[in-house]
Specification:
single chain; four-stranded antiparallel β-sheet; 2 domains; 427 residues; binds alpha-D-glucopyranose; 12 strands; D-Maltodextrin-Binding Protein, domain 2; 18 helices
Length: 427
């Protein structure tokens, strides 16, 4: 395959990084030399929690070892690294730890092994249906869900109660409550992920759905970004971060962790984020322990909103020299025992159904039953093979608007035009 010069330079660069990362994570000749290794890339912040899963697997499969290469936390960066490694076809990875949005692209390129036979109907019933569906592309199963995500609205229960306010159901209620309770710069009204990356797309889609709009219809490939609902959504976000608004200027450069830390420090009334925040914010020593509540994201009408479906799963790289062992690892990682090991200490949401009434997991995270209800209406991002490019287009234009470089209408008209051109060549 011939690549444009810029891209091939980039690919060579990132493959280099992958190779270095793999070397650092465990090259032949170090731990467990001589035993076949299953290699894959995990985000640096999760690696410590993957190690016990690798150790229990190695114990049950004495002939094998698991090499966990450490990659960036940001999904967009890891997607580029993964793509580069799979494109190089050098067998760097046996397994792929992939976001819900990566399945169509990696499967359409032929880089993943279908898992239909390895995970028949009966085995699939173990998983939350939304999380499982994110692994299906053109009728085949490629990805088994490991942990799931859904966008949530966190709020300061104590501050709302003191003002006699119920949790907001509509965006106008949230805006009014935030204006009333905020005391900037010490206490902000509303924090969300506004940096130019995938997290902004996840949040924008919640706002867009809550306004009755849509981004891409995956069936017809129709694009809804230049419709009035989309413009109204972006106008609202622009107003939130304008001077005198309910979100601090820094929100337009924030990702999940920056907003989580501020909220956890007691510096915001409302926060949009993923389920993992609950356990961290409620744990002993957290300034907001016992003071937070969680709801579905607001909408214009007040009907509980559909949070964006997120989450991570495992697939087998077609170039793996150990596909059967890789499948055995997926079975191990997605067992109830492994979900306990991984989700209890981190607060990440398990992908298995039985985890939601498991006493050990409930003890670590009593929020699970409530989460399960909200998760039931989680909305997927569009299943298109050119998802990464479509997201990049949207990220750029949303960010230009939030940074004051374009009006909401101009930004979205341009994004719609580019997205239509891009989808015109959808494989
Ligand atoms: C979380 C979600 C993932 C999403 C990402 C955006 O990791 O699980 O689906 O793409 O956040 O930042």
């Amino acid at each position: 395959m011939t690549l444009p010069a810029g891209i091939s330079r980039f690919v060579v660069g990132v493959v280099g990084v992958v190779v270095v990362a793999l070397g650092a994570a465990g090259c032949p000749g170090t731990r467990g030399a001589g035993r076949p290794a299953l290699r894959f890339l995990v985000p640096a912040n999760e690696r410590p929690f993957w190690l016990p899963l690798a150790a229990t697997f190695e114990k049950e499969h004495p002939g094998l070892r698991v090499d966990l290469a450490e990659g960036p936390v940001n999904t967009d960066l890891r997607e580029s690294l993964t793509t580069a490694a799979l494109l190089a076809g050098d067998g760097s990875f046996d397994l792929v730890y992939l976001d819900v949005t990566w399945t169509p692209k990696l499967a359409a390129a032929g880089w993943l092994l279908p898992l239909d036979a390895a995970f028949p109907e009966e085995a699939r019933r173990d998983f939350l249906p939304q999380a499982l569906a994110a692994g299906v592309f053109r009728g085949h199963l490629y990805r088994i869900p490991f942990r799931t995500d859904v966008g949530l609205l966190y709020y300061r229960k104590d501050l709302l109660a003191a003002a006699g306010l119920p949790p907001p159901r509509t965006w106008s209620e949230l805006e009014a409550d935030a204006r009333r309770l905020q005391k900037p710069p010490g206490l902000s009204g509303f924090l969300w992920q506004g940096a130019q990356y995938e997290g902004l797309v996840c949040f924008f889609l919640e706002v867009l759905r809550g306004h009755g709009g849509f981004w891409i219809d995956p069936e017809t490939l129709e694009v809804g970004l230049d419709r009035p609902e989309a413009v109204a959504s972006l106008e609202m976000l622009q107003r939130f971060c304008a001077p005198g608004g309910i979100s601090p200027p820094g929100v337009a450069a924030s990702k999940e962790e920056e907003t989580r830390r501020l909220f956890q420090d007691g510096r915001a009334v409302f926060l949009r984020n993923w389920p993992y925040v609950w356990r961290l914010a409620q744990r002993e020593g957290s300034p907001v322990a016992g003071k937070i509540g969680v709801e579905a994201v607001p909408t214009v009408s007040g009907v509980p909103g559909a949070g964006t479906l997120g989450g991570w799963g495992l697939a087998v790289a077609r170039t793996s020299r150990h596909p059967d062992e890789a499948i055995a690892f997926i079975r191990h990682a997605t067992s109830l025992a492994s979900q306990r090991l991984f989700c209890a200490p981190t607060g990440f949401a398990p992908a298995r159904r039985d985890a939601y009434d498991d006493p050990a997991l409930l003890a670590a995270n009593p929020f699970l039953p409530e989460l399960l209800k909200i998760h039931a209406s989680a909305a997927p991002r569009p299943v298109v093979a050119r998802y990464a490019q479509a997201s990049d287009v949207l990220q750029r234009h949303l960010s230009a608007c939030l940074g004051g470089l374009a009006s909401p209408r101009d930004a979205l008209v341009a994004a719609a035009r580019e997205t239509r051109a891009l989808l015109g060549s959808e494989p």
